[in-house]
Amino acid sequence: YRRLHTRETRLSKFNQTEIKAMLGSYTKVLFIRDPFHRLIATFLQGMGISPNFSSFVQEVLDSGMHSSSMAWKPLVSLCQPCLIPYDYVVMFGFLRHELEHLLRRAGLPVGSLLSEFTDSQMQWTYRWLSEQMFSELSAQQKKQLSHFYRWDLAAFVFFRSFLSE
Protein backbone atom coordinates (compact mmCIF):
# COMPACT_ATOMS: atom_id res chain seq x y z
CA TYR A 1 0.00 0.00 0.00
CA ARG A 2 1.98 2.87 -1.39
CA ARG A 3 0.33 5.65 0.62
CA LEU A 4 0.50 3.94 4.00
CA HIS A 5 3.50 5.97 5.10
CA THR A 6 2.42 9.40 3.88
CA ARG A 7 1.77 12.46 6.04
CA GLU A 8 -1.99 12.25 5.54
CA THR A 9 -3.70 11.46 8.81
CA ARG A 10 -7.39 11.37 7.95
CA LEU A 11 -8.74 7.98 7.04
CA SER A 12 -11.09 9.60 4.53
CA LYS A 13 -8.06 10.34 2.32
CA PHE A 14 -7.47 6.61 1.76
CA ASN A 15 -9.46 4.01 -0.15
CA GLN A 16 -11.28 1.15 1.61
CA THR A 17 -8.49 -1.39 1.03
CA GLU A 18 -5.87 0.93 2.51
CA ILE A 19 -8.10 1.80 5.45
CA LYS A 20 -8.68 -1.86 6.24
CA ALA A 21 -4.94 -2.60 6.01
CA MET A 22 -4.03 0.32 8.28
CA LEU A 23 -6.68 -0.42 10.90
CA GLY A 24 -5.65 -4.04 10.95
CA SER A 25 -1.99 -3.27 11.49
CA TYR A 26 -2.25 -0.85 14.43
CA THR A 27 -3.34 -1.17 18.03
CA LYS A 28 -6.27 1.21 18.23
CA VAL A 29 -6.86 2.99 21.55
CA LEU A 30 -9.77 5.32 22.19
CA PHE A 31 -9.63 7.65 25.20
CA ILE A 32 -13.10 8.67 26.37
CA ARG A 33 -14.45 11.07 28.95
CA ASP A 34 -17.90 11.76 30.35
CA PRO A 35 -19.43 14.39 28.01
CA PHE A 36 -20.44 16.59 30.95
CA HIS A 37 -16.88 16.50 32.29
CA ARG A 38 -15.64 17.48 28.82
CA LEU A 39 -17.96 20.50 28.89
CA ILE A 40 -16.74 21.53 32.33
CA ALA A 41 -13.08 21.23 31.28
CA THR A 42 -13.73 23.22 28.11
CA PHE A 43 -15.48 25.97 30.05
CA LEU A 44 -12.75 26.12 32.70
CA GLN A 45 -10.09 26.37 30.00
CA GLY A 46 -11.86 29.47 28.71
CA MET A 47 -12.69 28.05 25.31
CA GLY A 48 -16.09 29.73 25.33
CA ILE A 49 -16.81 33.44 25.56
CA SER A 50 -19.63 33.02 28.08
CA PRO A 51 -19.46 34.60 31.52
CA ASN A 52 -21.01 31.58 33.28
CA PHE A 53 -21.47 27.86 32.75
CA SER A 54 -25.17 28.04 31.93
CA SER A 55 -24.50 30.56 29.13
CA PHE A 56 -21.66 28.41 27.84
CA VAL A 57 -23.91 25.33 27.73
CA GLN A 58 -26.49 27.36 25.81
CA GLU A 59 -23.77 28.32 23.30
CA VAL A 60 -22.93 24.64 22.85
CA LEU A 61 -26.58 23.68 22.45
CA ASP A 62 -27.22 26.51 19.97
CA SER A 63 -24.21 25.62 17.83
CA GLY A 64 -24.81 21.87 18.18
CA MET A 65 -23.20 19.65 15.58
CA HIS A 66 -22.54 22.65 13.34
CA SER A 67 -19.77 23.88 15.60
CA SER A 68 -16.21 23.37 14.46
CA SER A 69 -15.05 22.82 18.04
CA MET A 70 -14.10 19.23 18.74
CA ALA A 71 -14.00 20.07 22.45
CA TRP A 72 -17.70 19.41 22.91
CA LYS A 73 -18.83 17.39 19.91
CA PRO A 74 -20.16 13.94 20.81
CA LEU A 75 -17.38 11.34 20.82
CA VAL A 76 -19.38 9.02 18.59
CA SER A 77 -19.29 11.66 15.83
CA LEU A 78 -15.53 12.17 16.24
CA CYS A 79 -14.18 8.66 16.76
CA GLN A 80 -16.66 6.42 14.91
CA PRO A 81 -16.58 3.58 17.50
CA CYS A 82 -19.24 1.67 15.57
CA LEU A 83 -17.07 1.60 12.43
CA ILE A 84 -13.56 1.32 13.86
CA PRO A 85 -12.81 -1.79 15.92
CA TYR A 86 -10.86 -0.23 18.80
CA ASP A 87 -8.63 -2.63 20.70
CA TYR A 88 -8.85 -0.62 23.92
CA VAL A 89 -11.24 1.99 25.25
CA VAL A 90 -9.63 3.91 28.11
CA MET A 91 -11.92 6.00 30.30
CA PHE A 92 -10.80 9.24 31.91
CA GLY A 93 -10.97 8.73 35.65
CA PHE A 94 -9.60 5.20 35.38
CA LEU A 95 -6.42 6.13 33.52
CA ARG A 96 -3.99 4.72 36.03
CA HIS A 97 -5.52 1.26 36.10
CA GLU A 98 -6.22 1.06 32.37
CA LEU A 99 -2.89 2.54 31.26
CA GLU A 100 -1.03 0.12 33.50
CA HIS A 101 -2.78 -2.76 31.77
CA LEU A 102 -2.17 -1.26 28.32
CA LEU A 103 1.54 -0.63 28.96
CA ARG A 104 2.03 -4.17 30.24
CA ARG A 105 0.30 -5.59 27.16
CA ALA A 106 2.61 -3.52 24.98
CA GLY A 107 5.67 -4.76 26.91
CA LEU A 108 6.58 -1.29 28.15
CA PRO A 109 7.81 -0.34 31.65
CA VAL A 110 5.00 0.70 33.98
CA GLY A 111 6.63 2.00 37.20
CA SER A 112 7.55 5.68 37.22
CA LEU A 113 5.25 6.73 34.40
CA LEU A 114 2.03 5.96 36.26
CA SER A 115 2.95 7.47 39.60
CA GLU A 116 1.79 10.86 38.25
CA PHE A 117 -1.84 9.77 37.88
CA THR A 118 -4.14 10.25 40.87
CA ASP A 119 -7.51 9.06 39.59
CA SER A 120 -9.41 8.98 42.87
CA GLN A 121 -8.68 12.66 43.58
CA MET A 122 -9.61 13.52 39.99
CA GLN A 123 -12.90 11.63 40.26
CA TRP A 124 -13.82 13.37 43.50
CA THR A 125 -12.99 16.80 42.06
CA TYR A 126 -15.06 16.21 38.93
CA ARG A 127 -17.96 14.85 40.98
CA TRP A 128 -17.97 18.02 43.08
CA LEU A 129 -17.59 20.28 40.01
CA SER A 130 -20.34 18.39 38.21
CA GLU A 131 -22.75 18.91 41.10
CA GLN A 132 -21.98 22.63 41.18
CA MET A 133 -22.17 23.19 37.43
CA PHE A 134 -25.23 20.96 36.92
CA SER A 135 -27.15 22.96 39.52
CA GLU A 136 -26.63 26.11 37.39
CA LEU A 137 -28.51 24.61 34.43
CA SER A 138 -32.21 24.87 33.75
CA ALA A 139 -34.31 21.71 33.46
CA GLN A 140 -34.59 22.39 29.71
CA GLN A 141 -30.80 22.66 29.30
CA LYS A 142 -30.29 19.40 31.20
CA LYS A 143 -32.79 17.66 28.93
CA GLN A 144 -31.23 19.13 25.78
CA LEU A 145 -27.71 18.11 26.87
CA SER A 146 -28.85 14.56 27.55
CA HIS A 147 -30.38 14.48 24.08
CA PHE A 148 -27.30 16.05 22.43
CA TYR A 149 -25.01 13.39 23.97
CA ARG A 150 -27.49 10.50 23.75
CA TRP A 151 -25.31 8.43 21.38
CA ASP A 152 -22.23 8.81 23.60
CA LEU A 153 -24.29 7.78 26.62
CA ALA A 154 -25.60 4.76 24.68
CA ALA A 155 -22.20 3.73 23.28
CA PHE A 156 -20.15 4.03 26.48
CA VAL A 157 -20.81 3.39 30.15
CA PHE A 158 -20.14 6.60 32.06
CA PHE A 159 -20.56 5.73 35.72
CA ARG A 160 -22.82 8.19 37.55
CA SER A 161 -22.96 10.69 34.70
CA PHE A 162 -25.24 13.61 35.43
CA LEU A 163 -26.48 13.48 31.84
CA SER A 164 -27.80 9.94 32.16
CA GLU A 165 -29.67 10.56 35.42
UniProtKB/TrEMBL annotation:
It is a single-pass type II membrane protein. The keyword Cytoplasm does not apply. Its main location: Golgi. It is found in: Golgi apparatus membrane. It comes from the Eukaryota. One of its GO terms (molecular function) is sulfotransferase activity. Its EC number is 2.8.2.-. One of its GO terms (cellular component) is Golgi membrane. GO terms for biological process: carbohydrate biosynthetic process; dermatan sulfate proteoglycan metabolic process. Keywords: Carbohydrate metabolism, Glycoprotein, Golgi apparatus, Membrane, Signal-anchor, Transferase, Transmembrane, Transmembrane helix. Belongs to the sulfotransferase 2 family. This is Carbohydrate sulfotransferase. It comes from Rhipidura dahli.
